[in-house]
Amino acid sequence: MRVSKPWPMLRRITAVSKALLFLGALLDGVDPGPLVYNGRVYIYTGHDENGSTNFNMRDWRLCSLANTNAWAGQVTPRNGKFYYYVPIRHSTTGGMAIGVGVSDSITGPFRDAIGRPLVENGQIDPTVFIDDNGQAYLYWGNPDLWYVKLNQDMISYSGSLTKDIRYSTGTSPTGPWTYRGVIMPKQGKSFTNHPGIIDFNNTSYFFYHNGALPGGSGYTRSVAVERFVYNSDGTIPTIQMSTGGAPQVGTLNPYVRQEAETMAWSSDVETEVCSEGGIDVSYINNGDYIKVKGVASATSGGKIELRLGSVTGTLVGTCTTCPVSGATGT
Predict the structure, then answer these.
(1) 180 and 136 part of one domain
(2) Signal peptide location in the record (predicted)?
(3) How many structural domains compose the chain?
(4) Structural domain of residue 206, as residue ranges?
């Protein structure tokens, strides 16, 4: 490519080279994030405390949601401003997240741009790349690599950050290991997933979490379960998230006591340890409900009593039930 005015560019490169000549190993810092801007080299670093055995950046005060830690950051100029992407330890969750600060000056001060993490999945070390079409990407991760497409405002991103579940098998508890592929692909509203597998009553179940309940997200997750069958060679099939989940195991007997915390659906109620032993349902307000399903068919109706304080407390309400046709009812 022919450059019509090469000298200004060469002079800027020379100036940068001269600056680099004097850096050597004389800069007291860690995790350098270099940036060339208007012919000058800027290096954003943290530093280790003398005699420390861990990273405790006491003099960082960038993100309002961070506690004492802010690690390897990177500054990117755009839109006439400067954006500082910094790994922080979230003061509420305790996990590592990526925060973003913004300033009108390359030397700061930087202020928290959004008042919350930009992304949070326990990974660190962010950097930004802007392609020839002007699309900005945020990359981060240690030991894994993640990325999202940043929006034009540089403090939000498009798409979702999700994690799939993959696995390997070994001939012993210490390997060697053979990669087997994806168990559950990237789905749902949560950017994380955490699996567990059990066998119960000769049936295999895969537990995981997502953000499928109303208001769900990567920070308000819910547990789900799917039933599956191993492949003939012993490998695990690809399992999709569903809204129905695994089929119910057995039915509820209407002629024996069923605890209130036995439920298929609920709204706004909570459970707690009962002073009389076991678990009770609490924080019940108007409009809240509990539902069960798969109740065995009864030949006659019955009633549900609501009492205050205990099973012998003041009777405050009675719900009369009718027989349900068919094998099971809801």
Answers:
(1) no
(2) 1-32
(3) 3
(4) 165-228
**Same domain assignment for residues 154 and 192:** no
Question: What's the pLDDT tens digit per position in 123-140?
Answer: 888 989 899 999 999 988
> Tell me, what amino acid is at 125?
D
Residues 89 and 149 in one domain: yes
142 or 227: which leads in pLDDT = 227
CA distance 189 to 215: 10
CATH classification at residue 134: 2.115.10.20
Predicted model pTM? 0.53
User: 220 and 283: one domain?
Assistant: no
The model's pLDDT over 242-255, given as tens digits with 9 standing for 90+, comes to: 988 888 888 888 77
> Token match 């800069």: residue?
27
Q: Which of 127, 158, 189 represents a domain boundary (last residue)?
A: 158
